[in-house]
């Protein structure tokens, strides 16, 4: 990557970090105040007035600042014209809407910039926790301005796994004995960030995560020393015609093959 590109993405990172904070402040204004809720027809997931208001704030800031970038948001109707853009914003105004509506703190604003299919800048802002995760291509992963890194626990240590209860039950006994299942984390993006900052050793993501759920967290994990891959070990590609993904695994790079082998055994067993 050239110095010019690095400077460009660093400037973009500052832009999206500020936008995420402003959108987070908007969302926080609705928190614990019973905002109006609607239900999406395709999957019966909730969307609230807070989601829409935060989305409007992000769109107003980002599209004005970078009119030559494309746009993909969970709360904006998809436009196939985005496929013509080499660079675009991919946003989720509130990742973890169910938690937000339940008054739980584990939700965040997710903003990523994708260039030629891969993230080059990403931010997760959790307003209720006052936490800002950020990363830029070729730079460090940061949490509230301080570098973070994935867990250094090895196979002989007790691993912290964020998996469903059903999946944990079918793990081999030897794996269960040296693992602790972490209770449900309602924001997928935040869950991947927990792998990036070492609180989790791995999380397995079921099929149908969307670009906006994972793109910023993907880059943050990568720059912290981890990988987010499908069960064949391939990194996710973004801004395709299809914006959903197959099952994924997020883990430190040093343990990637271990967990991929385990998941392959479960899939084929």
Structural write-up:
The protein folds into two domains: about 5-145, Fructose-1,6-Bisphosphatase, subunit A, domain 1 (Fructose-1,6-Bisphosphatase, Chain A, domain 1, 2-Layer Sandwich), CATH 3.30.540.10; about 160-269, D-Maltodextrin-Binding Protein, domain 2 (3-Layer(aba) Sandwich). It is built from eight helices and 14 strands. The protein has helices at about 5-30, 50-65, 95-100, 165-170, 175, 190-195, 210-225, 255-269; strands at about 35-40, 45-50, 70-75, 85-95, 110-115, 120-125, 130-135, 140-145, 145, 160, 180, 200-205, 225-230, 250. The strands form three sheets. A seven-stranded mixed β-sheet has the order 3-4-5-6-7-8-9, with helices on both faces. A five-stranded mixed β-sheet has the order 11-10-12-14-13, sandwiched between helices. The chain has a two-stranded antiparallel sheet with strand order 1-2. The termini are far apart. About 40% of the residues are buried.
């Amino acid at each position: 990557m050239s110095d010019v590109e690095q400077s460009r993405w660093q400037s973009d990172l500052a832009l999206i970090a500020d936008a995420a904070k402003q959108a987070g402040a908007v969302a926080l204004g609705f928190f614990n105040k019973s905002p109006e809720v609607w239900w999406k027809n395709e999957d019966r997931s909730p969307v609230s007035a807070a989601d829409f208001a935060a989305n409007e704030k992000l769109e107003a800031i980002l599209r004005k600042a970078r009119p030559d970038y494309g746009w993909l948001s969970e709360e904006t109707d998809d436009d196939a014209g985005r496929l013509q853009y080499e660079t675009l914003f991919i946003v989720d105004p509130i990742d973890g809407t169910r938690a937000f509506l339940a008054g739980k703190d584990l939700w965040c604003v997710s903003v990523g910039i994708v260039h030629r299919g891969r993230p080059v800048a990403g931010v997760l802002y959790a307003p209720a926790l006052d936490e800002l995760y950020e990363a830029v291509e070729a730079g460090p992963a940061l949490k509230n301005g301080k570098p973070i890194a994935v867990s250094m626990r090895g196979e002989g240590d007790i691993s912290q796994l964020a998996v469903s209860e059903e999946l944990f039950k079918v793990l081999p006994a030897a794996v269960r004995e040296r693992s602790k299942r972490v209770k449900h984390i309602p924001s997928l993006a935040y869950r991947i960030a927990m792998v990036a900052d070492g609180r989790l050793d791995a999380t397995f993501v079921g099929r149908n995560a969307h670009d906006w759920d994972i793109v910023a967290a993907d880059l943050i994990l990568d720059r912290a020393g981890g990988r987010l891959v499908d069960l064949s070990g391939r990194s996710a590609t973004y801004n395709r015609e299809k914006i959903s993904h197959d099952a994924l695994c997020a883990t430190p790079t040093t343990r990637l093959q271990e967990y991929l082998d385990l998941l392959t055994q479960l899939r084929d067993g």
